[in-house]
């Protein structure tokens, strides 16, 4: 089982490196094509793909770091390294989007001649490489990190198709304003996509419970065990994007230590099976010693 997990992990690293190489190739081709054709949308997509390559590179580095075992300084381990990498990537993405919007507005008022054929050729090359990246990343959907990279590349493929469509419209109708329009649309897409992703990332960094987590239902289920008198000081959070953790005080009427320990194990089993909480820390105390005036802290 351990060997199988290690093989999956190594495969994940290789897929990320292949996707990085493909995006670097796309970026180089688009920069050359954009400069030759004078197309801002090609250069905009090149900037986007460059950020994708950097994103995947940082994701790879963060993935490598996240595999390190916990030590005396990082007692929770290094899993959250991927979340820190995501914050860096997304912040950079917003800066790029702002620059693209500025350039698009400037091109609307100061139009330039654009080579439609070069846009189409470069866009076609990029679309093939984007599609290959999608195929490579589709082989591993075992983590949120890989799923987000996969969805990101699908959206990139769609943006590249937009560049090809822009080139066709320029050739057929000589409407050069379509180039900055596509650039602006790419920038808007970056904002929308980046905003969605950064909300998820900040949620993990803020140690929030998942948005749809049934907190009240979980507390009711814990109180449903015979012998449980009260549940208080409850915290639910995500140590990283894949795991859920909980800590809580459980007031029980049972005084026998062996029975109390068995009750605690049953509660932990329920939390894992029904609510996906793999790491639960329960402080068991006798109901008669509980100060009921203490504030109950819910998931934050």
In short:
By secondary structure, this protein is mainly alpha-helical.
Helix and strand topology:
Elements: H1 2-37, H2 40-66, H3 81-109, H4 116-137, H5 144-173, H6 178-205, H7 215-223, E1 228-237, E2 245-252, H8 257-275, E3 279-286
Parallel strand pairs: 2-3
Antiparallel strand pairs: 1-2
Could you describe the 3D structure shown?
The protein is mainly alpha-helical and 300 residues long. Helix content is 67%, strand content 9%. The protein is built from eight helices and three strands, in the order αααααααββαβ. Strands 1-2-3 form a three-stranded mixed beta sheet, with helices on one face. The chain is elongated and about 85 Å long.
Described by the principal axes of the CA atoms, the overall outline is elongated
**Helix amount:** 55-70%
* Broad structural category: mainly alpha
**Number of DSSP E strands:** 3
């Amino acid at each position: 089982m351990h060997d199988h997990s290690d093989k999956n992990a190594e495969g994940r690293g290789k897929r990320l490196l292949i996707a990085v190489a493909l995006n670097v190739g796309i970026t180089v081709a688009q920069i050359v094509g954009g400069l030759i054709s004078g197309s801002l949308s090609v250069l905009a997509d090149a900037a986007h793909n460059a950020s994708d390559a950097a994103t995947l590179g940082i994701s790879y580095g963060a993935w490598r770091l996240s595999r390190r075992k916990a030590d005396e300084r990082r007692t929770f381990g290094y899993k959250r390294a991927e979340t820190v990498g995501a914050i860096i990537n997304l912040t950079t993405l917003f800066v790029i989007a702002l620059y693209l919007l500025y350039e698009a507005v400037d091109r609307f008022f100061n139009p330039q001649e654009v080579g439609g054929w070069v846009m189409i050729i470069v866009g076609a090359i990029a679309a093939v490489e984007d599609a290959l990246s999608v195929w490579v990343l589709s082989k591993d959907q075992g983590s949120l990190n890989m799923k987000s990279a996969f969805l990101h590349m699908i959206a990139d493929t769609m943006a590249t198709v937009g560049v090809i469509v822009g080139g066709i419209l320029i050739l057929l109708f000589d409407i050069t304003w379509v180039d900055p329009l596509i650039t602006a649309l790419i920038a808007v897409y970056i904002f929308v996509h980046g905003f969605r992703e950064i909300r998820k990332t900040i949620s993990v960094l803020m140690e929030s419970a998942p948005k749809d987590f049934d907190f009240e239902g979980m507390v009711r289920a814990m109180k449903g065990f015979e012998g449980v008198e009260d549940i208080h000081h409850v915290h639910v959070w995500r140590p990283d994007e894949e795991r859920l953790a909980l800590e809580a005080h459980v007031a029980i009427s049972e005084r026998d230590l062996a029975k109390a320990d068995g009750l605690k194990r049953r509660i932990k089993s329920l939390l894992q099976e029904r609510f996906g909480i793999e790491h639960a820390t329960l402080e068991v105390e006798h109901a008669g010693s509980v100060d009921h005036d203490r504030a109950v802290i819910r998931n934050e």
